[in-house]
## 1
Amino acid sequence: MNVTDLLNSVPTGLWQGGRSAPSESGRTFEVLNPATGRVLTSVANATPADARAALDAACSVADEWAATPPRRRAEILRAAFDAVTARAEDFALLMTLEMGKVLPESRGEVAYGAEFLRWFSEEAVRIGGRTATAPAGTGEIAVVKEPVGPCLAITPWNFPLAMGTRKIGPALAAGCTMIVKPAEDTPLTMLLLARVFTEAGLPPGVLSVLPTLDAPAVVAELMNDSRLRKVSFTGSTAVGKKLLAQASENVLRTSMELGGSAPFLVFDDADLDRAVDGAMLAKMRNGGEACTAANRILVQNGIREAFTAALTERVAAMEVGPGWEDSSTIGPIITEKQRSSIAALVDDAVAAGAIVRTGGGKVDGAGFFFEPTVLEAIPDGARIRREEIFGPVAAIVGFDTEDEGVALANDTEYGLAAYFFTENIGRAQRVARRLQAGMVGVNRGVISDPAAPFGGIKQSGLGSEGGSEGIAEYLNTKYIALPPA
Ligand code: NAD
């Protein structure tokens, strides 16, 4: 499909009641292509009144959806998986256009994002419960699982499809209805997904999508309404904290996938080539715009120069350009604002004495491109050693002993992902346990898997998405006390 036909196939209204509809205000907003800085299209701009209407719809069908046999819910999820997979090229190109990542990475996200629909279609029929005889013989204990009720999902722009399917899949499988508030920079992928779901047989009202430029007001309208029962958020820690405070008002169930500052440790006994391959993935995949991105590359001093030289060579060879061009290996940053904040972190580090091995600044011309960068000798006080970079900047810091490396890795308020490279099995077991993170990659630069629980500790979040743990986030536990048999 060419770009014009593709854009024409994407609903540009709010997705409500199984169809595309304008905002009650009649207002719209523009979606930009970050590779050109030009407008792709405009979408409806939801208001609090639109949010109320979506919640009315989610509540009116909530009982019916919860009572829909798990097998039927599974079949609809599976049909949606098949439909997304059949339109994989359309979803991939759409993500490249609105978010900027290169097409091979967009294709990878389609496969990863669709897999949550297949995985949770398989989980829908295995929800289960348990029974037991009370130890005193006074009765029977029955434990059943029930959907939590209408849910709100708030998603970021960096994985426009997968951050949605990771929430929609388990919610629908559990029997919950869901309203999605997609990131304002990338609403198109979620709107296309909603249409695909409706075509796959999802009843109207079960899934709504509300793009808006006024997230705080739209989200507050929903969270202040006691009919909403859960909020699942992926985004920055700062916004997550606000939402947690708001969620306390109606004691909402919450799932929080927040920011990260992943350490990437390379020990002297690592396989150098494997570690460099891992660093390229953990740092440069998605243009470095990933919550799991290697934010602090910590390298033992015996291997540091060899590792830095090899990584620099690979990074310097990257081709910056529009994601749809075959030659491009890295696309633009999502917005000029985000690009400027990456530049400010690099400038601050350089002013403090860091050495630029390659890259270091914005790329002149149209679009929001930034040079893939390697920095080393970064002094302790530089902001880049503590803050989330969210861009293609590898920040390398040396260490001497295993204890020192682990201490540096854990010296952060975040605890999402951590990676380390060693060929020593004893060290592998030891360090995996010592790292304070919800997810640890051993000799691997990519860890996400729909069948595994994704989630952080410390200020990186609450709860898990994916795996058998993912559906539990959308289920309440009810104990039914029965008389003795
Ligand atoms: P963000 O927090 O600015 O925005 C995320 C979402 O929240 C967007 O949809 C936005 O419109 C909405 N939002 C913003 N302010 C809000 C408010 N006051 N009330 C309600 N909603 C509000 O984050 P971002 O810039 O879109 O994404 C980048 C961040 O997301 C990074 O910190 C990254 O680490 C994190 N992230 C985490 C994960 C994870 O799984 N842990 C995955 C991807 C991204």
Note: Residues 103-124 form the longest helix (22 residues).
## 2
Amino acid sequence: MRLVAGNWKMNKSPEEARAFGQDLSRAGLPEGVRALLFPTALALEHLVATVPSTVGVGVQNAHPEVCGAFTGEISAAMAKEAGASWGLAGHSERRELFGECDALAAERVSGLLRAGLNVMFCVGERMEDRERGLTDRVLRRQLGALKEEDLAHQRLSVAYEPVWAIGSGKAAGPKEATEAVLMIQEFARRPLTVLYGGSVNPTNVERYFQSGELGGVLVGGASLNPQTFRELLVAVAL
Ligand code: PEP
């Protein structure tokens, strides 16, 4: 089933997350599509308590260790205890703004899988990479950092998120997205679920599914409003 995942980044307090969950529950969800939300870690429990039970809730970032002297971090096991069933790793904001390298992103993936969570691993090129014809090479490098058993893991999904398309209003075209999806699946040597992310909204979302290759979309800005998030679900539902 197609997946619509919302990444809230550093938005929505615990009370705002609770209100979002209540709104979504009141409105009801369309059939034929899976919904997933990544709130801040502080709002996990509030969202889990209020969204319809079919909505997955995930942690945006988790340290590979279970516990220890890692100030400011939380572990996948802690997120799971708070109700998370998914975890994001490798988001370009972690890579670009917090200097996270391929190796750390890959370790975070391993930690999430070890904790029993589903993982959404993000990969994507910068505009200068694309202009220099390096998109494939960048994606292969990011994917190649994963342990082989993690890449083969049934609980791993990949989100293709070109850095230049995130939060910019400049969404990639369906052709660019499909090319990347096929390249990622070929690299993984299996039909894993690949999503597209980058300035997706209810108006442009349908075009990404026309090729039949995409498993879903990862949405930032357009996931913050419950009505808009629901419109995305309705547009994507089969
Ligand atoms: C994201 O942060 O993963 C994202 C896709 O953001 P936006 O939809 O706002 O471009």
Note: Residues 7, 161, 166-167, 197-200, 218-222 surround phosphoenolpyruvate (CB under 6 Å).
## 3
Amino acid sequence: MKQDLSTIAGLFRMHGLFVAAEPYGTGHINDTSKATFDQSGTPVHYIFQRINHNVFKDPAAVMKNFSRVCAHLGARARARGDARGAIDLIAAKTGESFAVDGNGNFWRAYCFIENARTFDVIESAAQARLAAQAFGRFQCELVDLPGERLIDTIPDFHNTPKRIEALERAASADKAGRLKEVKKEFDFIMARKEECGILLDLNAKGEIPERITHNDTKLNNVLLDSSTGEPVCVIDLDTVMPGLVHYDFGDMVRTSTSPAMEDEKDLSKVFMQFEMFEALLRGYLDSAKGFLTPAEKHYLPFSGKLITLEIGTRFLTDYLEGDVYFKIHRPEHNLDRCRTQLKLVESIESQYDKMMKLLESL
Ligand code: ADP
Ligand code: GN1
Ligand code: MG
């Protein structure tokens, strides 16, 4: 790894001497490393990422969006004297925002944000509120991104009906011979198929606007300050593109309300904690209420259910296809992940009236 990464680092405009690199983080898609450089006697850290070009078919387009968003958010952060508020990309020696190695892999490098960390499981309602504020502010700051429409880095990324069609195709093909094990999960999803197009239909009718959204607002995609817990920076910008605000709020509900890991095997530990939902809603509205329309607000509780069902559908599809998309660490990994999502959907459904009442009261 050390040898490989020092060669990769040589493709970028780095200062100092390469010292070491180690794999970093728990993401399911890209390969991330933290590297140390010795700059005139001071150790300085960087993140290097190999973009997964199986998932992102056009990595140059990803980087075009990525660098526009970083420049815009970076200017905002600098204006408020915040050195950690935005990802600071290092240019490649070609002058571009990415480098391509001899094997056709796409790489990017950025400054490591110090004294900040991510969480895979929510720890408190206060933390949920702060994380939601950060994602709401992220959307708010991108409302006035200048220039042309961002590129769809993965077309139909949050098109839930199409995700369900993909599951149906995977089930018919049954490539990995696993369909017989997952009948219950498959039926659970199919029973909810009709509700999945609601937001897209409203968007098509002009009742809900397209915005710039993050589209992957997992709790572990926001860095929080290691000492104060305050939000520092929203990361993982590959999927920043046009979308509905519900994709972001929904993924917050999916990843920040259950006290269990996304791949927990004991499903009795998986459920939506209402106080976390309340904290997310309050935190998100704190920073996003200035631009949200009444129709957008109305569907926030529904989005939690929709996006949880959608990601559950994607995990099951990948399981049926033989684990070709998400990184796995055990054979049943995608199935375990699917099951937690479906359990969470049930829990959200059982608290839905209360969620709507809370929204109305705010
Ligand atoms: P993935 O798409 O694989 O999830 P991420 O961009 O989320 O990749 O990065 C993986 C992990 O690396 C993050 O969860 C975070 O812990 C860490 N990380 C990413 N960027 C930075 C950064 N600029 N500073 C510090 N840590 C970072
Ligand atoms: C992936 O990259 P990461 O781990 O933050 C995935 C998301 C899923 C998530 C499920 C590009 O996110 O869409 O919701 O896993 N990213 C992509 O944990 O597919
Ligand atoms: Mg990530």
Note: DSSP finds twelve helices and eleven strands in the chain.
